[in-house]
Amino acid sequence: MGHGHGHGHTAGSASARHLPRLAAALAIGAAFMVLEFAVGFATSSLALISDAAHMLTDVVGVGMALTAILLARRSTPTHRRTFGLYRAEVLAALGNALLLFGVAGYVLYEAISRIADPPEVPGLPVVLAATAGLVANLASFALLRSGAKESINLRGAYLEVLADLIGSVGVLVSGAITLLTGWRYADPVIGVAIGLFVLPRTYVLARRALRILFQHAPELVDVRAINAELAALPGVADVHDLHIWTLTSGMEVASAHLTVDADADGSEVLLAAQRLLAGTHGIDHATLQVEAQEAAKRCTELTW
């Protein structure tokens, strides 16, 4: 006796309702990225170029996030794609992390190579461009902040904007120091600081995405405790083949075999297990197989 139970996610995921905010953040980022690149190359400011590169990852990252949401909205399961396209969001988050690793490495390399002979950078254009970039990042930050709590995909875009926001502040400080003191090392030093700032946050994002792709149990879920709770339900003799994983942000999935006593009512056991998983642990989509002890013997023959 088996049963699959779950609530529909017709909107594609928690991030779908934030689609207009993502679109606005994409437009803002693209416009100010062009401005920062233009001024950065015109003034030879590594700090400004690095901030523009971060903004490029914002644009690409938000664009991937938008694409992932549009794909997820079409994630009606089929006989081939039985879980739809929800994982597109996780892949987009991992892609964002790889972009950030690449940009941070580039900035560190360029900054270190320039420290020996830093070029003269005019402070005023850098300050003006960094101020414009800061305003743009503040707007994008406000647009994406709420959605970042619900979706790893939106969190990827949000972290890029956050890193770029801090980067814009750094560029502003660099330009101000150059403008007021003429100290040529301010620009490469700030470039190194921006690169070092983004790396730990990128690592966390990549780790979260890989945990989902490798189908690890969610970090806040104690699989052993759930196994024990299921085994303690009236009529349950044994619990085995328990798997809990994340399909995409906010969508936890479970499957398990419940061996029941000979006199147990399988339907009551099934209902009690569903209530336990959904009510106590927030796992709405659980596929549970209720089986007699004779049928459970086959499970011991499986190699994985």
Describe the structure in your own words.
Keywords: Ion transport, Membrane, Transmembrane, Transmembrane helix, Transport. This is Cation transporter. It is a single chain. The protein has 304 residues and is α+β, with helices and mostly antiparallel strands. The protein folds into two domains: 2-213, Alpha-lytic protease prodomain-like (Up-down Bundle), CATH 1.20.1510.10; 223-301, Alpha-Beta Plaits, CATH 3.30.70.1350. Helices cover 64% and strands 12% of the residues. The longest helix is centred in the middle third of the chain and has 30 residues, at 152-181. Mean pLDDT is 82; it is low at 6-13.
**Fraction of residues in β-strands:** 5-15%
Multimerization state: single chain
The helix/strand order is EHHHHHHHEEHEH
Name given to the CATH homologous superfamily of the largest domain: Cation efflux protein transmembrane domain
**CATH architecture label name of the largest domain:** Up-down Bundle
CATH class of the largest domain: Mainly Alpha
Query: Helical residue percent?
Result: 55-70%
- The number of domains: 2
Low-confidence stretches: 6-13
How would you state the average pLDDT, rounded? 82
- Got a strand count? 4
Main sheet specs: 4 strands, mixed
Numbering strands along the chain, what is their spatial order in the largest sheet? 1-4-3-2
Radius of gyration equals 25 Å
Indicate the structural class.
Answer: alpha+beta
**Outline type:** elongated
Amino- and carboxy-terminal Cα gap: 22 Å
Q: In DSSP terms, counting alpha (H) and pi (I) runs of 4 or more, how many helices? A: 9
CATH topology (fold) name of the largest domain? Alpha-lytic protease prodomain-like
